[in-house]
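stuck on this one:
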Amino acid sequence: MSVGTAVPYSYQPKDPTKPVTSAQFTFGYGYSGALSADTRWLQFIEREIDSMKGTVSTPVAGDFTAGTRTYPLTTSAANPNWSVDSDSTSDPFFDATHSGESWRDAMSVSAYDSPSWGRRIVQAQLQAGAPSVISRAHFDIFLIRDFAPIFRIEVEITWTFTAGSQRPSVSRQVKSTGPAASLPTAQKSALVARYPTFAYIR
C-alpha cells in the first residue's frame, strides 16, 4: 500500500510541437498485490469553506460544483456532508470513473487526484470583505475487495487565501492510514443514497 502528496508526473501537450510538461497531482495512492484485479478504490469527499475575520470562522453555506457533480458544503464539523467522488451515475469506484487519473495493470491499481478549491465561492467571500478564506477538502478513501473495505486512507487538503494575494498557501496532509472492515455510517449512507445497487458493500 502506498500514499503520498505532491505526486509528480509528466504529459505531452495536445500540440506535438510543445515539449513534455512536468506537473503534480495533489495526492495519490495505490495497492500492489496478486489480488489487484479484485480490488477497487472508493473515494468519498466532503468540503468546508470558512470565511475568516480575525480568529472568528464563519462556515459558508451552499453547494460546491466540481465537474459534473454538485453537492452541499459542510457547515458543521460534527455533521459532514459526505459525497461519493465519482462522475458516473452508475459506478462509484474512483479508479473506474477517472481513467485519466488512474492506473491498473496485472499487479497494481492506483489513483491520483488534483481537487479544485472552489474559485467562485472563495472569490465571492473575498470580494464581500473577508480578509481571509479557508477552503478544505477531506477525502476518506477505501480499498474495496469483494463486498468489504480492507484498507482506509484519510487525506486533507487546505487552501488559505488572504485578500490581495494572488495565490493561496496550500497544506497537503495524509491524516491516517490503516486496515478497515466496514464503511462508517455516514459514508455508507452517502454510497447507498446515490448508488443503491452497491448497498452490499459492508
Summary: The CA atoms of residues 69 and 87 lie 7 Å apart. The radius of gyration is 18 Å. Residues 40-97+115-198 form one domain. The chain has a mean pLDDT of 93.
